[in-house]
Amino acid sequence: MTFTLYNAPQSTCSQRVRFVLNAKGLPFEEIKLDLLAGDQLKPEYLALNPNGVVPTLDHDGAIVIDSSVIIEYLDEVAPDRERFTPQDPVKRAHMRALMRFIDEMPAAAVRVPTFNLAFLPRFAAMSEEEFLAFAESKPLRKEFMLAMGRTGFPQKEMDAALQRLRRTYERMDAEIEKSGGPWLLGREVSLADIALMPAIVRMADLDQATAWQDLPRVQHWYDAVCRHPAFQPTYYPGSLLTERFPHLRTRA
Ligand SMILES: N[C@@H](CCC(=O)N[C@@H](CS)C(=O)NCC(=O)O)C(=O)O
User: What residue spans of the chain are helical by DSSP H?
Assistant: First the structure.
């Protein structure tokens, strides 16, 4: 089996897929796209992924898109090494329900603090025309970019995103308590944990970890994620925003 992953070092969706490939010990060729330069909007990439986003997986010529779909796909085609999907159908359904929740809540909400705290200086440096053309070119995120504008999301939007993330930490806490932990579904790490990981790592990278300091189960989960053998190869140098954006380092 040969795998080629089109992705970006700091992309949270890409980090899910790298984690699964690394945890399973599957060798893969990594093609890095520069998202701020617009590599994801070039015609040759849009032919692979018409959404104009990363990641995209090429498995022996079969193209699979969307990080949640890709990690489920990898667990199906390479179940041997480490398996992240429970055998029991009820547990499996619970895992999938959590994955839907994660895509709708933290994975979407984390874009607001990411853009406001990290990417904004890039957009503020563009002219209004450049910014509008940049937003127009995005098949999936045009309205998101226009809502943000060159000055960033208003405080109301930022507060709403942080509240959605806070409700996620509370939901994690409740799930871990119910399952007995340390993972969301109990003793075994599952695709739900992997889907959630990059949003939580991102919030820690943005110096926002105090938001779950009253929830020790969530902190233990985060520590377990960071200790997992697939964590370091996934978060290779250049994968964190603090490594790329000096203004974040001075804040932290
Ligand atoms: N649902 C998609 C979302 C992918 C996505 O939003 N990717 C972001 C990086 S995490 C991206 O490529 N953004 C580029 C852009 O917005 O132009 C998935 O999970 O694969």
Answer: 12-23, 43-46, 67-77, 89-104, 106-109, 111-114, 120-124, 128-136, 142-148, 155-179, 191-205, 216-227, 231-234, 241-244, 246-251
Which residues approach ligand 1 with their CB closer than 6 A? 11-13, 35, 40, 52-55, 66-68, 138, 141
Closest Cα to atom 6 of ligand 1:
53
Backbone angles phi, psi at 76, to 5 degrees: -80, -45
Task: Tell which atom from ligand 1 comes closest to the C-alpha of 35.
Answer: 14
Nearest-CA residue for ligand 1 atom 11 is 53
Per-residue pLDDT tens digits for 113-167: 999 999 998 888 999 999 999 999 999 999 999 999 999 999 999 999 999 999 9
215: which 2 tokens? 């929830």
Measure 200 CA to ligand 1 centroid, in angstroms.
17
Minimum-distance ligand 1 atom for the alpha carbon of 198: 10
Ligand 1 atom 1 nearest Cα: 66
pTM value is 0.97
SS3 123: helix
For residue 195 the two structure tokens come to 């889907």
The 10s digit of each residue's pLDDT in 23-62 is 999 999 999 999 988 999 999 999 999 999 999 999 999 9
49 Cα distance to chain centroid:
17
